[in-house]
Amino acid sequence: MGTAATAGQQEKISLLKVLGPVHVWALGVGIVLVGEYMGWNFSVAKGGAYGSLIACWVIGLLYTCVAMIDSEVTSTVAAAGGQYTQAKHIIGPLMAFNVGLYLVMAYTMLEAADALVVGDLLKAVAAQYGADLDPRPFVVLTIAFLAWLNYRGVFMTLTVNFVITAFAFIAILVLFFNASGLVDGQSVLLHRDLLVDLPYGWIGVLASLQFGMWYYLGIEGTCQAAEEVRSAGRSIPMGTMGGMMTLLIAASLTWYICTGIIPWEYLGQATTPLYDAARLMGSVELEVMLFIGTMFAAIASANGCINDASRAWFSMSRDRYMPHWFGAVHPRYRTPYRSILFLIPIAVSFAFTGLLDQVITFSILSGLLGYTFMSFNIVRFRRLWPLGSIERGYVHPYHPIPCIVLGVLCSATYFATYLGYGTSLLSIMAFYILVSIWFVVRRYPFVKRGEQFTMPWPRPKGY
Q: TM spans, by residue (predicted)?
């Protein structure tokens, strides 16, 4: 009797509602800002400097649509799991399973890329002083420390994220003010000499869309905090849309600084372009600040990715889409601790490959599949529960224009990815088809359909 009562009591333990708009901003921007410090510049190699700028703004429009759509649905479906929970309520189990995997894979591989950046940056700095540093221990240490932080509680995790993300954003502003001459009146930017026409034509611009996603990839992760915010209708839209505006500013400034200091042929291959730009300016203070900013951006991103991937895995396990054992909540820290621990070796194994561009590509493709789902999801959501039928925390304007734009831009980005990474695109598509078959044949019998719908909504229109 005592054991049964204890088990029943543990089953009722839930996640804490302790977060506000600032924490949502820290989660979204924290995951993404590393894209301003590295990764985005691979778009320069594809389409040149101007091609990268076009990709920055076009993909910025894509993510603005994502943020608007996500803010409406998530402020209404306020539960952990984000897009997975939306798919479960609005479309069905098979789509929910796939969307949940998209989230776990996108964030886990992004986490691996972040840890790689930390290790590679430390190795590069050590090489300046004649030392040969093995980056792998720092990769493991970074992931292990951040997993421990997430294990101990979401409030502390995202408070730390806010502090280090804010520093990384301020570092970009400081570099911009110094490079453009707004501090001492002497600009070091050489856009007139370094900028050239599109080196590969418009096909290069199209190809650059793939890595243009790195400017913003992960902002949709704010949805994973829906069950832990004090007011979903206020915090999710404010944190997500505020984060998107922050990223648009940071992305534009980053492009402006780097293309004015580094020739595009070298910029397209750089591992840490903002740090390299600071080094070329010859200021020790700026170099140190951008070194810290790059480290903080990568750490904040990995920290947020652990938070989001574990919430998605936890939500799937709680609904028995994955083994129910992973759906446990820590009785003291109120975190999905088993999901956090389970994903650590997966992230480490991806990071140990050392293939930064491949890891980024797999993360981008998993995210892109999730964005494609959103364009269909919002149409069905509005059709089943029209405006006025249920209470919404936020209503995105101009429907259905954002979902149409999102669908068109996703299609263009698939083609862009195929141009440079066709094998990776086909491989990951095959992977998701195979796991879908596995889910239908092996896992679906464990799913309790009657317990899936948890929102207090009226019967959908037409049912």
A: 18-38, 50-69, 90-110, 135-151, 158-179, 199-217, 238-257, 288-314, 335-353, 359-379, 400-419, 425-441
